[in-house]
Design goal:
17% helix, globular, 659 residues, single chain, Rossmann fold
Length: 659
């Protein structure tokens, strides 16, 4: 009989993920998306699944190469609509399809040249509102193809539009008429991020920015489209908006996620958000919950109240909010619920939830309807627990500590620190592959490491004071939180102070780079998709506003704060072996950041390796690339902390960097 082992890197990347739930209005059926790995094609496959209460089982709506996402039940709960690729060759785009519940009959509703990005049923079920590229943007795309994108930088952007399609094609008839499509907005200076439809179908509310340029993301405004007269008007709201908007059941009010202070404040300050409501009859704006110290997201306005979601430290919870500010909890306070759908009457809901040390499952009215964690049967699995420590200035910091099945509290283990991105995000005690496709924690554990994932200051879920405690202190204050966590485990006697490594991607990569150049506490560092020089980043990224929010100004006005918080400022003190990984198509954190750190480390004669992942953007979209990145990290820390031969490791893991 073979001894149990932890998940291999390939198995970690084969874990199924369920998300994107939608419950039928009668509360009887649930649709959701299941993501699986297809190793033959080196792709991830997404298929909509249907759970029918009467059958008590889940069945796929599509299978094989015909994928499906974004399932939405018809208003009468009898049909299911979804997005699926249509077209020929390499020109396949996402289009709206409608199918019978068993998926045996289906019809294509749209035929957009560049595909559909989002859609909703019209409340009567006679048609669909959807978002697709505007006609103006199609012309821009053609010019870009002729002259190159550089020709239009800062001048023109490919915006989208809201369309309405009358559902004429039917899978259960011989009708072959073309669907009638109406363009409802102008794409010249109007890019939609979110929308909702009133229950009577007469109004559409939209969150839209002047362009698709990410620099305009903070300039989103709310617009109301009156479908009867075809009139579009802007609501005067001086807030930063957060891509969540919904109508009240009677259509007289709108609820949305908004900043707590006026928009101008956040040009140079970190944003905090709450729920705001506007009465369209009186123009009154009010925030019903002012005493909740957390970012709150509205999801749907039901007859029983507003379904909302918020993070409470390492939990994600849901509740119903009444207009007077009272909240009815819909789950336990330590739940981790990421994806929620509720019926219009508020009586039934479905959601995806993960328990500690588990991956996500789907639930209907509190009852689990999937069994994805069966994937772990016959395998060892690390244990994740929440620990706390104090930073040097008195902040209480939490983190997730992963330990082996046979953990010995009297033994000193080599320690690896995995830092989350954001910074306004967090690590959680659920199975980490749900959010972490770069670092193979299970394989680290099998190798003999313990792993700490700290929620340093600036992380979400710990209140606004904690969220903003990193303002103009990036790298300096939060790296102190991380090192304090390392010291805590060393003091407890379970971490070996001479065998500690640190890693992270995006902002977690920035923190790792900061540790690489400012500290000699670590034996090895891995820097992924990271900012290494804030001025270089400001000049190259698609989100320069993000930097001004955290550092207080642009680099030309306040160069000292950019210098003080940049890892490259301290490059002459760097001494830690550093692995650098970066995608060559990353526009959020462009590759000059990686090259700058690599050249600086080489000039200081520090052991370093730069791996540029071809055709990879901010994150990998191929399981093979994820495996390669994970193996690179496993080898790096096995060599520099455990002393294993790099040559032997490369042979063992059949390394293919694709870099």
């Amino acid at each position: 009989m073979n001894a149990k082992t932890y998940l291999s890197i390939e198995e970690i990347n084969s874990l199924p993920t369920v998300s994107n739930t939608n419950i039928s209005e009668d509360g009887k059926n649930v649709a959701f998306v299941k993501k699986t790995t297809n190793w033959k094609d080196n792709t991830y496959r997404n298929h909509a699944w249907i759970y029918e209460t009467v059958k008590g089982q889940c069945t796929p709506l599509t299978t094989g190469e015909i994928e499906s996402t974004s399932p939405i039940w018809s208003p009468d709960s009898k049909e299911i609509a979804y997005l699926s690729l249509a077209g020929s060759g390499n020109n396949k785009k996402q289009q709206i399809f409608v199918a019978s519940i068993d998926g045996s009959l289906r019809s294509q509703i749209t035929n957009e040249t560049e595909g559909v990005s989002a859609f909703k049923w019209e409340p009567t079920g006679k048609g669909f509102y959807y978002i697709a590229q505007s006609k103006e943007s199609k012309a821009i795309k053609k010019r870009n193809e002729l002259y190159g994108d550089f020709h239009h930088i800062g001048k023109e952007y490919q915006n989208n539009c809201l369309y309405y399609v009358h559902k004429i094609k039917q899978y259960d008839t011989n009708e072959h008429e073309e669907s009638v499509v109406d363009q409802l907005t102008d794409g010249k200076a109007f890019h939609i991020y979110d929308f909702d439809i009133s229950n009577d179908g007469k109004q559409v509310v939209m969150m839209a920015a002047p362009s698709s340029n990410m620099q305009d993301y903070i300039n989103m405004e709310l617009y109301i489209l009156d479908r009867q007269v075809g009139k579009l008007r802007k609501l005067e709201i001086d807030r930063l908006l957060g891509r969540n908007v919904c109508f009240s059941p009677d259509g007289s009010k709108i609820c949305y996620s908004a900043s707590t202070r006026e928009k101008d404040h956040y040009k140079t300050h970190i944003q905090d958000r709450t729920i705001e409501i506007v009465d369209m009859n009186t123009g009154e704006h009010f925030q019903p919950i002012t005493d909740m110290d957390s970012t709150v997201i509205p999801l749907r306005w039901t007859t029983k109240g507003i379904l909302m979601q918020w993070q409470n430290k390492m939990s994600y919870v849901i509740g119903l909010l009444s207009e007077n500010g009272t909240i009815e909890m819909l789950c336990e306070k330590d739940s981790f619920i990421m994806d929620v759908s509720i019926t219009r009457d508020g009586n039934h809901l479905s959601y995806s939830k993960a328990l500690p040390n588990e991956i996500f499952e789907m639930y209907l009215d509190g009852t689990k309807i999937t069994n994805e964690n069966s994937f772990f049967e016959g395998k060892l699995k690390s244990n994740r627990e929440i620990i706390t420590w104090l930073s040097s200035d008195g902040f209480e910091i939490e983190g997730v500590l992963s330990t082996p099945v046979e953990f010995d509290a009297n033994k000193k283990y080599p320690l690896l620190v995995v830092q989350h991105g954001g910074p306004a995000w967090a690590s959680f005690p659920i199975f980490s592959n749900c959010f972490n496709e770069k670092y193979p924690i299970e394989q680290f554990i099998e190798k003999g490491f313990i792993v700490l994932e700290p929620n340093y200051r600036g992380s979400s879920g710990y209140g606004n004071e904690f969220l903003k405690a990193n303002y103009r202190k990036l790298g300096i204050a939060d790296s102190g939180d991380v090192i304090a966590g390392v010291d805590h485990l060393i003091h407890k006697g379970i971490a070996d102070e001479n065998r500690v490594g640190v890693m992270g991607w995006s902002y977690g990569g920035y923190l790792s780079a900061f540790c690489s150049t400012t500290s000699n506490r670590f034996k090895a560092v891995s820097v992924g998709g990271a900012i290494t020089n804030w001025i270089t980043y400001y000049a190259n990224t698609d989100v320069p506003y993000f930097i001004k929010m955290h550092l207080g100004n642009d680099p030309w006005t306040d160069p000292e704060i950019y210098k003080k918080t940049s890892p490259m400022t301290y490059i002459k003190s760097a001494c830690t072996p550093t692995l650098i990984q970066h995608g060559d198509k990353d526009v959020r954190v462009p590759t000059p950041n990686a090259y700058e750190l690599y050249r600086g480390l080489k000039d200081q004669e520090v052991d370093t390796e730069l791996i540029i992942c071809k055709e990879m953007a901010y994150s990998p979209d191929q399981p093979g690339m994820n495996v390669a990145i994970m193996k690179q990290n496993l080898m790096w820390f096995s060599h520099y902390i455990l002393g294993e031969s790099m040559k032997d490791l490369r042979v063992l893991y059949s390394q293919d960097t694709e870099g």
